[in-house]
Structures are given as C-alpha cells and as structure tokens.
Amino acid sequence: MGVEIEVNDLTKSFGKQLIWGDVSLTIPAGEICVMLGPSGTGKSVFLKTLIGLLKPDRGSIIIEGTDIASCSERELYEIRKLFGVLFQDGAMFGSMNLYDNIAFPLREHTKKSESEIRAIVMEKLDLTGLIGTEQKLPGEISGGMRKRAGLARALVLDPEIVLFDEPDSGLDPVRTSFLNQLIVDLNAQIDATFLIVTHDINTARTVPDNIGLLYHKHLAMFGPREMLLSSEEPVVRQFLNAQKIGPIGMSEEKDADELAAESDQELPPLPPIPMQLEPSNGIARRSQREPGAWCREQGITPPPGSFEDNVSMAPGA
C-alpha cells in the first residue's frame, strides 16, 4: 500500500530566482495525482525536491513521520527506498540490455541471489508488457518501449511511491493512451502512491484522482479531479480546458492590456467532465470514486454531458 506525502510551506529558489513558494498539499496514500503547469513553472524541480535530490529553501516534506527536507543523509537513504522514479527519457544504460537495466537496482541495493533477481525482473517485464524483449538494448526498441522498461525498473524494488516525470514526453497520442492505461492498471495492482508530472491535458482529465496546478511561482490549486475540472478559477479553467482566454500568455502572464482586451469576450463553456479511466480488468481501484460523487457532495452541477463514456478531452479554443 502507498504512503502519504505531506508538503508544508515548501519554497525553492535558484540564487535570486524564486521557482515556487509556500507550496502546501497532501498527496493521499495509494492515489494517482497529476501535477500540471505551464513550461518553466518548476514541475520537475518539485519532483526532485520530493525525493531529496534538491533541498528546499524552507518548508517540510513529511513521509512516514520523517521530514526529508531536514533529515540526515542516512534517514534520507532509507526513505528513498520507498520511491520508484520514471525519468523523462527512461534513463536507461545504453550498453546494458533491458534485463540488466531492470536488474540493476536489485543488484545494487539488495543481497538477492541471481535466481531471485531473475524472478523479479521477469515479473516486472510481464507487468509492463515487455516479455521477450529482455535481451534487446535500449537503442533497439521504440520510445514507448523504453518508457515501459524504465517503469519496470522503477517498480523492481516494490516502491510505495512512484514518481513519473513527463512519462508521455516524446510519445504519440496512441502510445500515450497505452501508457495511461498501464499506469491505471499498475495502481490497481500495487496500490502505490503515484505522482505524474505532465503537460498532456487528456492524461490530466482522465487518469488521476487529484490534480495540482503550478503557476506564477505558487500552487494555484490542488484537489480532486472533479473540483479542478469544474473550477471557474481563471488560470485553472484556461489551462485544463486548453483555452486562449485567461491569464496565461504565450510567454508567461498576459499584461494588463491583453487582459483588458479579453474582458468583453465571452468565455467558452466548460467542456464535459470525462469518465475517469478504469483498470482494464473492470475492477475499480481502491481510491476510485463514483463518477460525479465530488460534484454531488459539493452541490455543484457539472457541465452538460459530463461523465459520459464518449467524453475524453477538452476541445482547444
């Protein structure tokens, strides 16, 4: 079962450049969360800070009672055993075949025998649909297969937290759809806590239990998927619905003149909220809620057509 990550007042700068400040959120145990934001808002920095690769300027990150922002190196080493990470490019060793790439963490961090390692590696290859490719080099397979191999390696130590740094980067829409289904199926099987950094709006609208949005050096919003997909908050509405009207401009924020010019334009209606992607075996994940449950609890009427099977992605504006 996954573990909870509690982030309080987290702030990170590089020199005089503030990346984001006073970020507070709780990533629930065993749930799938997505972190969004325009390019350059520090999403990958946030991921690296969560695992202790970067130290925040202030704030805390509490995992199983340990603040990894201020703990000792020994404590951090132990906490990192809870994590598996899928990097953007898979981060495979080019001179090793897939089998040895996936076996690497087991050989480095455990005292398991080669027969035990083989059983685990083959299990993860099967889990990610890569049986039969174990002798191939990373350069001999497609980008989508490299992503899956990287995911198999991230899972090999049975982590309770899995971080995905733009897993859809470089993939076409079809491969992204297959990867999204794999992520949902894995969460159902291993019940770990998943955090996905992505730019893909379809992924954000259909995969997670919770969504966060980093914007203009702060966390604009974090909460249940239905909360953000029904939000009238301008930056949330604009980003999650791929609209041109709103505070986000081509470079960063729109200036006052641009916003004033938009003031008399009618906002397009919110698109329907799609059904959340379900495990391929049809059995709901532990954290999966009934479609529309959050909206009903909050007394919010979702956009017309919400929670229909044929709704998947917000239209561009």
From TrEMBL:
Residues 254-265 have a biased composition (Acidic residues). Keywords: ATP-binding, Nucleotide-binding, Transport. The keyword Ribonucleoprotein does not apply. It comes from Nocardioides salarius. GO terms for molecular function: ATP binding. It holds the Pfam family ABC_tran. PROSITE patterns: ABC_TRANSPORTER_1, ABC_TRANSPORTER_2. This is Phospholipid/cholesterol/gamma-HCH transport system ATP-binding protein. The lineage of its organism: Bacteria, Bacillati, Actinomycetota, Actinomycetes, Propionibacteriales. Transmembrane segments: none annotated. PANTHER family: INTERMEMBRANE PHOSPHOLIPID TRANSPORT SYSTEM ATP-BINDING PROTEIN MLAF (PTHR43023:SF6), PROTEIN TRIGALACTOSYLDIACYLGLYCEROL 3, CHLOROPLASTIC (PTHR43023). Residues 5-241 form the ABC transporter domain. InterPro entries: AAA+_ATPase, ABC_transporter-like_ATP-bd, ABC_transporter-like_CS, P-loop_NTPase. SMART domains: AAA. Residues 254-317 are annotated as: Disordered.
